[in-house]
Predict the structure.
Amino acid sequence: MKPSEFINLKYKPKSTDLICLFRIEPNKISLKQAAANIALESSIGTWTDVPETDYVKKLGAKVFSIKGRDVKIAYPSELFEKGNAPNILSSIAGNIFGMKAVKNLRLKDIKIPKEILNSFKGPKYGISGIRKMMKVKNRPLLGTIVKPKLGLKTKEHVKVAYDAWVNGIDITKDDENLSSQSFNKFEERLARTLEKANQAEQQTGEKKAYLINVTAETKEMMKRAQLAEDLGGKYIMIDIVTAGFSALQTLREADFKLAIHAHRAMHAAFTRNEKHGISMFVLADLARLIGVDQLHIGTAIGKLQGDVELVSELNDEIERKTVKETKNRLSQNWEKIKPVLSVSSGGLHPGHIPFLIKHLGKDLVMQFGGGLHGHKNGTGAGARAVRQSLNATLEKIPLKEYAKTHSELRIALEQWGGIKF
Ligand code: CAP
Ligand code: MG
């Protein structure tokens, strides 16, 4: 097929087609030519004509809409093996990013047809399953990341987790780059931290979860997940981008009783540049499709840049909108595939809670690392400050007011919120 045969602006996509929205910046050719090259390379074609059967031709992707630099392409679902996430990406997000035909290429959005959706498991628990497991009905879940992120010995790590739990935190997680280093081996950390989670549950009457990071070579990762299940854990955490979609799928397909927390470290290598790469929406859809129960979506207020869509300048309002849209996105109606719980993390402190609830609502995990353990009076006080801030926000009492009778919150607001009492 000639490149021009991949364009049909009269084509009405079928309900079985997978649809991609790309932003294309052509390189010394017309937008139409670049779009045709993208459709060709991401489906059946190559740089020169090769003999094609009628069936091959039928599988050619079709450019069916061009608006400015935004181009929509429909892919017949027979192009993809069902239940194979890497396979889908190798077509629609593969070679095309390196083609000379484009200066920049962004996969902005994706619409996945039902028959592909139904070939994946999706989340085991999702929002309602996690709420049930944690016995938290109407409020956001509070989480912490053990800090310092690396270097704590197992004993010290366990103490930090325990201090956070008994002072009001629901979920304690590892940092993304903690696995099984010599100073804090996985097996010992898992066993000792879970013991403390049980103790904290008995002391507080609340459910406490430890999200141990199982990210490792796939077989080793599976062993670690199995151990977390055997020792009675509730959750595991995986760095979905660095581990890879196939590893994530292996983990999900094993159908452990454990909920899966997805950290997205490295996502910004492809989500951050609004002209090139892959948007957070696409990553969120893939993670949900494969079946994570909760996923980092950004904060719109903390230390890390969100995925800024289609703006050349960094703009807080747009960043906020994108984080919010990613959250909505994780709940889009996918019939029997459950919605994913959103996680906001990165640079957060107790003073941010009213903002987070206002903009992102209550179906949220809010995580505090530095903004909890860095409290002048330590982890316990930091955890209390976080819980006090949540209570104040839920009771609709301004933090400054509430802090007058809650010293941990007062200190946190002085320390990080620039508030003087
Ligand atoms: C948060 C965190 C998380 C990032 C990930 C960190 O710690 O543990 O990895 O939030 O960001 O190391 O930064 P702090 P995202 O609370 O101390 O910042 O959710 O944007 O992928
Ligand atoms: Mg981290």
About this structure: The chain has two domains: 3-117, 126-416.
